[in-house]
Amino acid sequence: MSTPSIVSFPARRATASATRLLHSAIAACLGLVIVGFVGFSHIEVVHNAAHDTRHANAFPCH
Hints:
Layout (H helix, E strand, L loop, with lengths): L7 H32 L4 H13 L6
């Protein structure tokens, strides 16, 4: 007879927490890159699309 191992639960929880933190950091970096690209874009269509989206969501931008 083998005894069930309970040791794996804390390890799984730590791995899940680290994965969640990594995903959050990647999402934040991606968001900053997108906002930086759109906000400082010299492509008028990209900038205007972001500008119109901000106004549609009632977010003041100027």
